[in-house]
Amino acid sequence: METTRFAWPSQAGLKEIAHTLIKIGADLQVTDRYGQPLLHQAASNGHNDVIQLLLGHGVDVNSTDPGGRTALHFAAFYGHKSTTRILLSSPEIDSATCDNEGATPLCAAARGNHRCVALQILDKEPTSINALGFGEKNALHFAVENRNIHLASLLVDLDSPDPNTCDVQGWTALNYAAGQGDLRMMELLLTRSDLELNISRVPPIYLAAERGHLEVVHRLVSLHKVDINQTYWRKSPLFIAIEKGYRSIAKLLLKQGSRLNVNAKTSLEDTALHIAVSYGDSEIVELLLRDD
C-alpha cells in the first residue's frame, strides 16, 4: 500500500502529499512493483519539488534501481535540465556511476539526444566520456546515431574521447555517419587525426555503398588512406553497389583505375562482372570489361 501511495506524488508532482507521508514516517526508499525508487520516478518526470523534498529528508542520491541506474540516469535520458542541475548539486552525487550495461549518465543524455544535459554532466565529470552503455555504445556513438551535430561537435573537440571505439556490432561513430549518409557528421569526424578510416569488421565505405549514399562514397574515395576494396561478408563496395542497383556509385568506383580490384570474388566466387551480367546492366558490364 505504501508503494502505491508513494508512486503517486512523484508522478503527479504533489509535494503536499509527499509532506503528509513523511509526517507519518513512511519509508522514503520504498520502490514500486517494478523496483523503481520514488526518487527515480520523480527524476523521470522532472518533479523537482519532490526530488528536493526527498533529498532533504536523507534519500540517497546515488541509490539504484534493479538496472543499476541512478536518478541522474533518468533525468539525463529524459532531458530534464533543471532536475539534472539539482541532482548534480548534491555533494554526494556520483555523476560517473555505471548502470548494469556500463552506461553513465552522460551516455544516457547522449542516447536521449540531449546536448545541454550532456554538457551539464561533462562540466561535473569529464572522465566518463568513453564509458560504454546500451549496445556497447559510447556518448559519441549515440550523438552521431541521433544526428546531433552539436553534441557530436562538443565531444569531438575534447581530447579524451576515442573516436574508434566499436560497439557490439563492430561499428564506430564513422560507421554510423557513413551508414546514414550524414556527410556533415562525417566531415566533423574527419577533423580527428586519429580517426580510423578502414574499420576491420564493417568498412564505412561498404555501408555507404550498400545504402546508396553517393556523396559519402565520393568523400571516402577522395581519402587515399581508404581501402576501397575492403569487403564485408566477402562482398566489395563495388559488388554491393551493383547488386543494390546504385549505378552512380559503381561508376564512381570504376573511375578509380588501378586502385580498384574489379576481380575481387565473393565467398561464392562471384565477381562484379558476374552480378552485372546477371542483372543485365550492359553499361556497367562494358565498364568492367574495359577495366578488366
Automatic annotation (TrEMBL):
ANK repeats, residue ranges: 34-66, 67-89, 233-265, 268-292
Pfam families according to UniProt: Ank_2, Ank_4
Alphabetically ordered keywords of this record: ANK repeat, Repeat
Keyword Repeat part of the UniProt annotation: yes
Keyword Transmembrane: no
Domain of life assignment: Eukaryota
PROSITE patterns linked to this entry: ANK_REP_REGION (PS50297), ANK_REPEAT (PS50088)
Family annotation (SMART domains): ANK
Protein name per UniProt: Uncharacterized protein
Organism: Penicillium brasilianum
